[in-house]
Amino acid sequence: MQKNIKQAFEQAPWRIQLRSFVWILLVVVCFFAVAIFNLNISSRTYAAGVAIQDLETEKTNTMRQIADLRHQLAMIKSSAEMEKRLDELGYERISDPEELVYLVIPGYLGEQPVYEIPVSQKDDSVTLIKPAYTQSLWELITQQTLGFSKAPERILR
Amino acid sequence: MKSFIRFNLVGIIFTLFGLLIVFQMLRIQEFGDEISIDPYWEEPVTPERGIIYDRNGHQLAGNKKVYELGVELNQVVDPESIALEVSHIFDMEYKDVLALADMNFDENSARYIVLDDFIEPSKITQLESIEKQYSDEDNNGLYGLHWFSYLQRSYPEKFLAANVLGFYSFMDRIEGGAHFGVEEAYDNLLSGNSVTVVHPLDPSQISEIANVPPGANLVLTIDREIQAMTEEILEKAVEDNGALSGTIVIMDPETGEVLSMAVTPRIDPNEYNKYADLILNYNTYNRAVDTPYEPGSVFKVLTMAAALDSGSVEPDTEFIDTGVYTIDRQNIYNWDRGAWGVQDMTTCLQHSLNVCLAWIAVEKVGPSTYYDYMSAFGIGHRTNIDLAGEKILPLREPGDEDWTMLSLGNNSFGQGVATTPIQIITAISAIANEGKMMVPHVLKSVISEDNIINVYPRVSGTPISAETAETLTEMLANSLEQEASIALVDGYRVAGKTGTAEIIINGKYDDTLTNASFVGWGPVDDPKFIVYIWIEQPSSSPWGSVVAAPIFSDIVENLVILMEIPPDDIRQQLYAQTSN
Prior knowledge:
The structure holds 2 protein chains of 2 kinds.
Chain A: H1 2-9, H2 13-76, H3 79-88, E1 125-127, H4 137-156
Chain B: H1 2-35, E1 40-45, E2 52-53, E3 59-72, H2 79-89, H3 94-101, E4 112-119, H4 121-136, E5 145-154, H5 162-165, E6 167-168, E7 178-179, H6 181-185, H7 187-191, E8 195-200, E9 208-210, E10 217-220, H8 224-240, E11 245-251, E12 258-264, H9 276-282, H10 287-290, H11 300-309, E13 319-321, E14 324-327, E15 330-333, E16 341-343, H12 345-350, H13 354-365, H14 367-376, H15 405-412, H16 421-432, E17 437-438, E18 443-448, E19 451-454, E20 459-461, H17 466-482, E21 495-505, E22 508-522, E23 529-536, H18 544-562, H19 568-579
Parallel strand pairs in B: 2-10
Antiparallel strand pairs in B: 1-8, 2-3, 3-4, 3-5, 6-7, 10-18, 11-12, 11-23, 13-16, 14-15, 17-20, 18-19, 21-22, 22-23
Helix pairs in contact in B: 2-3, 8-18, 11-13, 11-14, 11-17, 13-15
């Protein structure tokens, strides 16, 4: 009788084999999925890093180009060049102050110089990697919990 | 059977796929191992040097892009091609370039050779087009030839205000630095802070980008148009008068702002290396601040200021000029050795009588009070103008080893005392500014990272009262008018004083060699400018009234136009209109 019950619940060998195969396949697939994901992220990280280096080089070259263009503009607008252009255009120097007519124009402040202000770089460095990529799971949970507990204060402010 | 084969086939395919992934990961790991020994390289980055503007925003000093051209010796394939193209474009000798490009690579001593430096971008453009031709033809003849850009200090106005700016020795790319003028005085602001940037060799390790802020930009008080006008007039005057050199300083007496500071000779800072002899032989870069000399009769203004302010004399105090004044058995004479008879204080200045001023200093003011006033005027002290290279000579005073009462007599008319032009104009500006002496400065603003920091005027001292300043200004204006001086300017009332100082040659004063000078300010009722002129050793005439006074008139005729100062009558009409 016990033998009969046992026999009644035994799987067919091919089913057992298939089940084992599927489990192994599942593990392998999971492993491959993780590996592919890791490879994908790594390659994108490298590509991003290379792109950043290229952009840094481009930024440096652009800054140099800007400086050079400023220099060229200054050369064109230099005192000697302006004098030459004035002569070519037929302007004459005022030799007698009596030739001048003075007008009072309310609100006129005279020539207002324009100075170029350097781009603000208040942050000493720009962090490229967000904390989420470097935090451990425990740190993330702790931060979220503390942040949640502080939220009402921020709202009250 | 079929399903057995199918399952095994799937398993083999997945296994192969997995092995490929593992292989790729091992390759990446191997790359990481290669760079783990030196995972980073450090690059010192020098920020862009700050720009210098004039007060109206015109660039006086900046930076331009230039290139360095060199060869990596271990990459050179065809040195003849490199030599051919480089010698043609950069006007170099073929054999010289070939000798460099064909050098043997040596890890320790010869890896990279510089062929040319400070190359203009236009030449690199030509080289790039040739390189493209080589590349299109699959020709590796230019392999190993590299070029990269960097910034070089540039001065687009060339000679203009070179004495004020100084220069940056950009040709020394390793130890170049700032010399003289604003470049040296404000080098710490202009140069910014060098930063060492760490670059990871593994691109995935980049976590920060270091920003290197450029140096601060400076705005000077110098007005480019006034500076250009001054330099043009000065150069013509030096040439016409056969003089050794000339200096003109124009300042706003109310603020101490230097509007113009012209000297001749001066250099082009873009080619500073060509002027080493000039600078070293004359031991001067900017005569206005670094060359003390005996000022002569312009110093009488300070003597009279001390006398009036101390109550020692009044404008109508009488003096009988006999043509000689004896101190310590030494005689002091007038400029013409003449006796001028009855004078008052105004005519003493008008006729520039040494005898009268020596009498005032010795018998009316006295040595103690006199030198207190001179010290208050800053004589013998630095003005602390913000330019590198200011030099002074101390003023001999009572108690000093070689001081005698004769020294006081001589000092009263500007001999036996040495001052720089900036010292004299700063001291006399107190008379143009209600008795207040302002600190002279050339910096107007500092611009850096969203901030504009303005430099505000500072009072250096108040050596005399406003009343004394007004009285003395009136005396000097009257003396010019009565003399019908050629320093006068139509339509504008100005005050001023000429100066003629003998120069010591071999221990004795030589009356054929002089320093001719003039100081003047106006408009008298509301001074907006003060001008000091010094012409060194004019050969046309030794007298300041002949040489320097007309220069003042020329300067002011142009200055009032550039500063938009209407003639006195129109200005007063306009003022009356706006008041109503």
